[in-house]
Amino acid sequence: MTYCVGLLLNEGMVLLSDTRTNAGLDNIATYRKMFHFENPGERIITVLTAGSLSVTQTTIARLRDAIDSPDATPQTSVLLAPTMLAVAEIIGDVLAQVRRDIDEKLSMAQGASATMIVAGQRKGGGMRMFLIYPEGNFIEATEDTPFLQIGEHKYGKPILDRVVKPTTSLSDAQKAVLLSMDSTLRSNLSVGMPLDLCVVNRDEFRIDTLRRIEAGDESFRAMSDAWSHALRDGFSQISI
Amino acid sequence: MTYCVGLLLNEGMVLLSDTRTNAGLDNIATYRKMFHFENPGERIITVLTAGSLSVTQTTIARLRDAIDSPDATPQTSVLLAPTMLAVAEIIGDVLAQVRRDIDEKLSMAQGASATMIVAGQRKGGGMRMFLIYPEGNFIEATEDTPFLQIGEHKYGKPILDRVVKPTTSLSDAQKAVLLSMDSTLRSNLSVGMPLDLCVVNRDEFRIDTLRRIEAGDESFRAMSDAWSHALRDGFSQISI
Hints:
- Chains A, B: This is Peptidase.
- Chains A, B: It comes from Pseudotabrizicola sediminis.
- Chains A, B: InterPro entries: Ntn_hydrolases_N, Proteasome_sua/b, UCP009120_prtse.
- The structure is a homodimer of 240-residue chains.
- Chain A has 240 residues and is of the alpha+beta class.
- Chain A has one domain (3-237): Glutamine Phosphoribosylpyrophosphate, subunit 1, domain 1, CATH 3.60.20.
- Chain A has 5 helices and 12 strands.
- In chain A, α1 (53-68) crosses α2 (84-105), α3 runs antiparallel to α4 and α4 (170-187) crosses α5 (218-237).
- The longest helix of chain A has 22 residues, at 84-105.
- The interface between A and B is large, with 36 and 36 residues.
């Protein structure tokens, strides 16, 4: 499985993904699940993927092919699309088409599928974040629900429900997604290090921070330990 | 859905269940999911249920019928069974049989099923806790994993993973299961108040505390608020 989360905030957006892929418990590998389509200063689009690796890799490859094609048009290339909504529609259509293509090769019982978070901003437009379903339809993050999750989302949801608001700072947002991931890593083996963290400031149309957090990362471990400590302290101080 | 959790500790056991049952989002009702079979001073057995209400109610009813039957034997009555292992086997067999009976009436696509936590102690034996699967087989809580969960278990697992050990006191254990439930209630609509909390001291073979926590319960709300406060405090003190 996978855990990916994206926060859409007043100051910008923060995205985090794990990298563990498995075909059965005895076939575990590391694959990047965060992809960027960038024209720095004009637009930045980040895609997080969960689900069948054959579906997500083929979808990303087709999106790149469409960008590089000499016949690229605003209807096919996410770097030419006129709005973020149009970007989400292109990606949704490609994802659904790839899924249909692969399903034809598989029996119905095995049907492969994937979900994606697509987030970004182009010059002249607002910053937007979408969750794209396997069928290609999508929902959007809003002020009321400023975060989207895909994959193993349940373990890490309580912390987000409690601390994330549109006014949350980008620094607190990074803390929140890392602690949300930390809870997931502790409780579910199918989600694993290293992690990819991306921060994009509003109206900059480029990646501000891109960080790969390896298994032995000292600062992540310190944060995880501090959080465990804070939880235990808080727990011991509560009376029933 | 449902969330039920049981902790098996050196001092005794603590069990907690919600009461929300739904047949679709527009058909929500309150049903007890915690049941006791008690011969005070000789044995106490508590059962927590998750899954199809038709399966769980029929299973509990058949277990009661078997106890009350004039033909009750150690092979059929959980109050006569020689060990807690035998109790788990009786309940697993009845659960699997009920499921088969109901499945015959339903199309395969709709198959009804249920899982249960069975916990207790009889005089002369140890305190034991089992998770019974829909097929009637089961696993047991151990020193390494002193808690079992059924239903919507993911939201409330991180806090248990962090604080529950066999040496945890019964007071802390109540706090842990209530906070685990609190996280679940906040993040998942299909789990709802009121709650049923049960505490059994080791080697007493009777219920020590049985408490129904209603939606407006002041002490539960105070604990929930204190926990939110502690989480936010802890969060704000961590640096990344």
